[in-house]
Write a structure and sequence with these properties.
heterodimer; A: alpha+beta; Heat Shock Protein 90; 5-stranded antiparallel β-sheet; 5 helices; globular; B: 119 residues; alpha/beta; Transcription Regulator spoIIAA; 5-stranded mixed β-sheet; 4 helices
Chain lengths: 152, 119
């Protein structure tokens, strides 16, 4: 794959759990074509999967009449992913999950998707739709060649 | 669409001779995996099962719902006086389990031999 070319891939997923894996696999393939190292591809896969799960469960509320949009834009050193749904977007970000509180029954064991996204990508923003119902999350992961260079 | 989660239980002994129940998972661990994860755990007799080893060698995909199931298992085990350990996670999911704090409540080992040697 050329190091100077950019590429855009768009897809629409059914609002059905499990289809996040289609976006995850496609994002991984695009990242691999653009030379992203394996560890960053794994980070991207989890972040994209969690973003799609949020869109399916919370944005589209499991309404199978709706779909989830995914737009991947790759260039020489970054990969941007937008995941679009028909929800209002998030009101405010949930607090960072606390394993001790979860273990003591003071916090739901679930609710780690947004935390994982934030922890695994270089940039993330949740954007509410201008019409009050369409929103998207935008993730950016940057190509870091240092591990490969240092291994030479 | 999710790859079905399969689980089975093996009975082994640690290097120090303690009985260990090994829960082996295969496939995806996601929201659809409740029976495979918690059902397999619930099949273990609490009175005689004090050491539990989770085998993730055959698992390729774990999402946040799957992690929540593992945490639920850890909560129930803790409440029953059981200790949980795990092995076979990829480097990525070792990082994810560390990020979310699971390693505070379940030691991770690279493989079964190293886990059994440590118990």
């Amino acid at each position: 794959m050329s190091e100077s070319k950019s590429a855009t891939v768009e897809m629409r997923l059914p609002t059905k759990l499990g289809y996040e894996k289609v976006a995850m696999s496609t994002a991984a393939s695009v990242a691999k074509l653009h030379g992203f190292p394996e560890d960053r591809i794994e980070d991207l896969k989890t972040a994209v999967a969690e973003a799609c799960i949020n869109a399916i469960e919370h944005g589209n509320r499991l309404d199978e009449k709706l779909s989830v949009g995914v737009v991947l834009k790759a260039d020489t050193d970054t990969l941007e992913v937008k995941v679009l749904d028909d929800g209002k977007g998030i009101g405010k970000q949930p607090p960072k999950p606390d394993i001790d509180r979860k273990m003591h029954g003071e916090e739901d064991p679930r609710g780690m998707g947004m935390f994982l996204i934030q922890a695994l990508v270089d940039e993330v923003e949740w954007v509410p739709g201008a019409d009050g119902k369409s929103s998207y999350v935008r993730l950016v992961i940057k190509l870091d060649k240092r591990p490969a260079e240092s291994a030479i | 669409m999710q790859s079905e989660t399969k689980s089975r239980v093996d009975r082994l002994s640690s290097s120090q001779g303690y009985p260990v129940a090994v829960l082996r998972f295969e496939g995806d661990i996601a929201s659809t995996s409740k029976d495979a994860v918690l059902g397999a755990y619930h099949s273990l007799p609490k009175e005689t099962t004090k050491l539990i080893l989770l085998d993730f060698t055959g698992v390729e995909y774990i999402n946040s719902s799957g992690i929540a199931l593992i945490i639920q298992l850890l909560i129930e085990a803790s409440n029953s006086g059981q200790k949980v350990y795990a092995f076979g996670l990829s480097a990525h999911f070792t990082k994810v389990f560390t990020m979310v704090g699971i390693t505070k409540y379940a030691n991770l080992y690279p493989n079964q031999a190293q886990a059994l040697a440590a118990l």
